[in-house]
Amino acid sequence: MNPSIKDYIVSINSAIERENFGSKPQELYEPIRYIMALGGKRMRPLLSLLAYQLYQDEIEKVIPASLAVEIFHNFTLMHDDIMDKAPLRRGQDTVHKKWNEPVAILSGDVMLVKAYQQLIQYVPNEKLTEVLEKFNQCAIEVCEGQQIDMNFEDQEQVHEDEYLEMIRLKTAVLLGFSLEFGGILAMDNEADHALLYQMGVNAGIGFQLMDDLLDVYADQEKFGKQVGGDIIANKKTYLLIKAKELASGENSNELNQWLRAKDFDSSEKVNAVKAIYDKLSIKQLTETKMNQYFEKAFKNLDDLDVPSEKKLVIKDFFNYLINREQ
Question: For 276-289, how does the pLDDT look when each residue is reduced to its tens digit (9 = 90+)?
């Protein structure tokens, strides 16, 4: 019987629990253990394992290498939370809130080094240079995406294509690398490596568009954080960009009033902007765009020359991402 998504995640979490991130000074290493233990979807190492299992059966041997992408991802979260002044991460205090900003910066720096250590230790020598080159390019692009996202805060007008490029860099390229990484560890077919990468990028853009939707339309009890946080913060999501593009007359005036407002009731603002979104069918437009990217990811998966039964677990995971409620 083939392992399920849950089985993969259990294996990843067990490997993280066994990982020795360091001990002294405690203030340096405790925050690393803390953020790594907060959980999450473990999507990036999971994608590496799912790609690997398309070609090879011995999944356990590549779990340590797959942890590199999870350590790197959590490093970016630790530093992003400082930049965003975020108080909570997965329902718990962020590292800079629980300790302080200098500790979070320094612990994050160590996490980046730990990600490289994981690759150097567990990637076969004959594949290490290729993996490091692709990982370096991915890491640079993630930073570029974060900077562009911060630039958007001071940018009056953001266009749809600019936003999609930002989320490709900030979110999707790491999912692309994670899938390609699993493929590189499993086999030497460069055409399949490229398909795996593109599949991850397409799914990653769809994943972020779903995140934008959930921030506005999720069930509060299932979502796990405040619904409407992006609206309150005037964050330039796909929904807001499309609303500004399509709104006219009274809708445009009201939307701009809420975007300019300094003193407001949060729930009133969320409800008012959401009502404008509803009038403009923004939810449906975002779902259509999201589905276009997931359809591209499914096409990339179909184009891989591997048995169809091997692809089922990835299809199931993508369908979970499309239909998730948090």
Answer: 999 999 999 999 99
Cα angle, residue 206 at apex, residues 41 and 301 outer, rounded to 5°: 85
Asked if 95 and 104 touch (Cβ cutoff 8 Å), the reply is yes
Residues 6+ apart with CB under 8 A from 157: 244
User: Is the whole-model pTM more than 0.85?
Assistant: yes
- CA 187 to chain centroid, in Å, comes to 26
Phi then psi dihedrals of residue 30, to 5 deg: -60, -40
Q: How far apart are CA 146 and CA 284, in angstroms?
A: 27
Residues 6+ apart with CB under 8 A from 203: 172, 175, 293, 294, 297, 318, 321
Find which of 80-84, 152-156, 215-219, 251-255 is predicted with most confidence, using mean pLDDT.
251-255
Angle in degrees, CA 88, 90, 93, rounded to 5: 35
- Cβ neighbours of residue 113 closer than 8 Å, sequence gap 6 or more: none
Tens digits of residue pLDDT in 90-143: 888 999 999 999 999 999 999 999 999 999 999 999 999 999 999 999 999 999
For the chain, count helices (H), then strands (E): 17, 2
Alpha carbon separation from 308 to 160, 253, 314 (Å, rounded): 35, 52, 11
